[in-house]
Amino acid sequence: MVAQTCRLDAIRESHRAQMDRLGLLHRPWVLLGGAPEPTMPKALKASHARVDINNSGLAAKRLGWGPAALTVRRPVESWEVFPDLETGAMLWFSPRPKWRQHWKLMRQREAKIGALVSLHPDDREAINQALIGPEMISIGELGKPSTGIAALCYGLFLGVPEIVLSGFSFARTGHSYDTRARPRWQIAEDRHALGQLKDDLRVATSEPELAADTRLRLWAP
């Protein structure tokens, strides 16, 4: 337990420094998830740093919102869906050594990524459990939250002042960037996680449907 606490403290210190250099530590974030028809008021885009989850930046590009300040990606996410991804920085949940990650990004010749921040999936899950509780491993089929909720936990863990969820839904099927209407997984895990985090005053949503469903604070300018 002591070793795990020391490990988390070291991760927090390192990643706070990296996000501070990117100008993202003290800014509020809006996480853009993959649910269709995300609710993103102009005032929210103006005041918060947009953080895209996996390939949700493709929907943002189609809507003319420009590149995100940060993109959070899981290691198995397809580059074929959004080969010309453009983002100020990328947080990659990847087990590969850092040099392998840079090599992989160099092969994405159409992508424009300003900076790379790396977090091992085991450390991601340690952060999730620190905020949500170790019982998460017994929830749902995978026992861990989605990339979007992991990004929420990551930001809260670092001390980001406010994080707003946009494009998150338990009712709308499919993805904003995908016309194949693929189902979204980890619903039980994400619902449990938001139940644990709903009383954190830093957490809000721009989606009235999600606020009513989970009792998250509905964001207002």
Estimate the helix proportion, in percent.
25-40%
**Any idea what the radius of gyration is?**
16 Å
Count every helix, treating DSSP H or I runs of 4 or more residues as helices.
8
**Which outline best applies?**
globular
Biggest sheet details:
8 strands, parallel
Helix and strand succession? HEHEHEEEHEEHHEHEHE
What integer is the average pLDDT? 92
How large a portion of the residues is in β-strands, by DSSP E? 15-25%
Poorly predicted regions:
none
Distance between the termini: 41 Å
Please report the total strand number as a whole number: 10
Assign the structural class, choosing from mainly alpha, mainly beta, alpha/beta, alpha+beta, or little secondary structure: alpha/beta
Largest sheet: spatial strand order? 7-5-3-2-1-8-9-10
Molecular structure report:
This protein is α/β, with parallel strands linked by helices and 221 residues long. Helix content is 38%, strand content 15%. It is built from 8 helices and 10 strands. The protein has helices at 2-21, 42-47, 56-62, 98-107, 121-132, 147-158, 187-197, 208-214, and strands spanning 29-32, 49-53, 70-73, 86-87, 90-93, 112-113, 116-119, 163-166, 203-205, 217-218. The strands form 2 sheets. Strands 7-5-3-2-1-8-9-10 form an 8-stranded parallel β-sheet, sandwiched between helices. A two-stranded parallel ribbon has the order 4-6. Helix 7 (187-197) links the parallel strand 8 and strand 9. Helix 5 (121-132) crosses helix 6 (147-158). The longest helix has 20 residues, at 2-21. The chain is globular. The mean pLDDT is 92.
